[in-house]
Amino acid sequence: MRVYDLKEDYWSLYEDDFSSALPENLRWRNWAIGKAQKDQITGDELVDFINNELFPKMKDIQLNSDSTKRERIIYEMMHEAFNYMKDGVCIRRAVNLLSRIKFDNKAELHEFNDVYETLLKDLQSAGRSGEFYTPRAITRFITEKINPQVGETIADFACGTGGFLIDAVEHLKKQVNSAEAMEVVERSLHGVEKKNSFHICFVLLICCYMVLIILKSVTQIHF
Asked: Which of 27, 39, 122, 133 has CB atoms 3.0–4.6 Å from 35's, for a disulfide?
């Protein structure tokens, strides 16, 4: 939701008729950070809001042939999401931490790879599930050697924390010199990731949707 809120900032700058797909009280800026610190909800009040208002209403979005891309993003984010945190004070701390992260900063995007690997170690699942993650220096090196070009299709069918996709986007952006070329880039990227652990899925969802921030649009990332 934090990443989607940043996207709405971008859309509002470039669209005269911008209107959020979310009710005002469900937008991150209004319930998570929109108030003075002393007025921010926390504790049991925050848990009640998340469980009985935020999640139910966002998951209730019905998709059809007329649904917008933004409604589809919300649906993909929330239709299988559940709140496993029962301590509202801990949730408030996590929300405040997320609000300070610069999701449009490439260096911070890559740091999420370390977060993911730490989670795997804590869950003692990395070795048994056969999962290995490519250091960022390697993804950059491989991307430079492959040298993808605008118009080529780029797919990562085990995209993990999105390292290769992020570096591919940054590489292609250097070649873009028109809005049309950027649209081609937006259509050319595809990522797939399948996980069965909620904690892992959560981190992957954040990392891969951060690709949207770099692209300034919607790409094809599937879970």
From this structure: 39
